[in-house]
Amino acid sequence: DLYRKVFVFRKDPSDAYVVLRARLEQPLHNLTVCLRSYTDLSRPHSLFSYATKAQDNEILLFKPKPEEYRFYVGGKFVTFRVPEGRRDWEHVCASWESASGIAEFWLNGKPWPRKGLQRGYTVGATAAILLGQEQDSFGGGFDFYNSFSGELTDVYLWDTALSPDKMRAAFLSLRLPPALLAWKSLSYEVKGDVVVKPRLRE
Question: Which residues form the Pentraxin (PTX) domain (predicted)?
Answer without folding.
Answer: 3-202
